[in-house]
Design a protein that fits this description.
It is a single chain. The strands form 2 sheets. Strands 7, 8, 9, 10, 11, 12, 13, 14, 16 and 17 form a 10-stranded mixed beta sheet that branches. It contains 15 helices and 17 strands. The protein has 2 domains: 166 residues, NAD(P)-binding Rossmann-like Domain (Rossmann fold, 3-Layer(aba) Sandwich), CATH 3.40.50.720; 203 residues, Dihydrodipicolinate Reductase, domain 2 (2-Layer Sandwich), CATH 3.30.360. Helix 4 links the parallel strand 4 and strand 5. The relative contact order is 0.15. By secondary structure, the protein is of the alpha/beta class.
């Protein structure tokens, strides 16, 4: 593959995905596209030079003819245009019709369900499509797969928890996604059966708990309608619980969003109010920069005995853009290098080799300026055995 198209490259996530691909230098040409041509060019001008030629292109993905024309020029497309409940399925459909391999960062439940139904069409077209290759879903799924393949004999429970905040700004698509999550049914895989709860209703209250996020702090997490709870049970036979919970800091900002939702505020009005008040809420909470943590707790057995593995991928100075955009780029690089070739529509745990992805991340992160203090992948892994003793594990040891 020589040419890649990044959709939504002026946004934080799309820009980070494109920048990562440019630094990796694996493509001859990267076409960065976005509806906002001026913002796109400003972003492109900040990217480093490499062996990859960068071309910027104004593109409205809802223009079917324009999207088809753009897809006809490339070998791979990375879709970072949200909200995905609006733009995910039609963009994937266009990629399948064009015969172009596809990667996205969709973390919305309903479009994930819809896009998974495109499996037969993608398979018939010979198109591999990797959906939800962000943070959660994305890296979370890859870490669970790594654990199932290399650390445990059986996996019985998976609890995915995430936090981020402090980014310089949050766009309307991000805020609409969060509001959508607060009013949507949240699937929970509990006792090997699917249940449905709501984030802000009594049904979800039982799943709200305080979590210690490494390098970030202790925060309450709430049920999130992210798609790991519907895909992991399919690919992990025997798992009895899968939950996804998260929050955004500062809590005053998250709470304001919840209050607007409970009051029935129209979405566009709520977005406008949140954008207007966010700077003061961050200042009042003394939040001066981005941070985030993905924590994945996995329970299972070795030799019939219970073990617990905890992954913590944390960052200070990096937020949702890095946490989501970099994994998308990693998925695209693996696909371009022939490591993901199976036609069809797949979640990460179905087709991503976790060792290959984590090794690639370890190689690239220092150049991106988001490596850990040791210059490697900023991930901490602990194992608690049946005797209650906790030991640290080395991912690359």
């Amino acid at each position: 593959m020589t040419d890649v198209l990044v959709l939504g490259a002026a946004g934080g996530i799309g820009a980070m995905a494109a920048r990562t691909l440019v630094i990796a230098g694996s493509f001859e040409r990267l076409i960065a596209s976005d509806l906002n041509a001026a913002a796109l060019q400003c972003e492109v001008d900040t990217w480093p030079t490499s062996g990859t030629r960068v071309h910027s292109q104004a593109l409205d993905v809802s223009d079917e003819e324009a999207l088809a024309a753009a897809l006809a020029e490339v070998d791979l497309v990375v879709n970072c245009v949200g909200p995905f409940y609006r733009f995910g399925p039609p963009t994937l459909r266009a990629a399948i019709q064009a015969g172009v391999p596809y990667v996205d960062v969709c973390d919305d439940l309903d479009p994930t369900r819809e896009m998974l139904t495109f499996f037969d069409d993608a398979h018939a077209a010979g198109v591999p499509a990797l959906i939800g290759m962000g943070n959660s879903p994305g890296l979370a799924n890859v870490l669970v797969r790594y654990c199932a393949d290399h650390l445990l004999e059986t996996v019985t429970a998976v609890d995915i928890m995430h936090i981020h905040g402090g980014e310089p700004s949050e766009g309307a698509a991000v805020l609409k996604h969060r509001i959508h999550a607060m009013v949507s049914d949240v699937p929970v895989w509990q006792d090997a059966a699917m249940r449905s709860v709501r984030m802000l209703e009594d049904s979800g209250a039982a799943y709200v708990t305080d979590v210690d996020f490494r390098d970030v702090g202790t925060y309450p997490v709430y049920p999130y309608p992210h798609p790991e709870t519907i895909t992991l049970p399919v690919h992990l036979p025997g798992v009895r619980r899968v939950t996804n919970r998260g929050v955004v800091f500062p809590l005053s900002y998250f709470d304001m969003t919840a209050e607007l939702v409970r009051a029935g505020t129209p979405v566009d009005d709520a977005v406008a109010q949140l954008i207007a008040h966010r700077p003061s809420l961050l200042a009042e909470s003394c939040v001066t920069g981005p941070a985030g943590c993905l924590r994945v707790d996995i329970a299972g057995t070795i030799g019939g005995e219970e073990h617990r593995i905890v992954f913590s991928l944390s960052s200070q100075g990096s937020g949702a853009a890095e946490g989501t955009g970099i994994p998308a780029a990693l998925g695209a690089l693996l696909m371009a290098r022939g490591a993901i070739t199976t036609p069809g529509v797949h979640p990460p745990e179905a087709v991503v080799d976790p060792v290959a992805m984590l090794t690639l991340a370890n190689e690239l992160l220092p150049a991106l300026g988001v490596a850990g203090t040791s210059g490697s992948l900023p991930i901490h892994i602990s194992r608690t055995g049946p005797d209650g003793a906790e030991t640290e594990l080395d991912l690359f040891g």
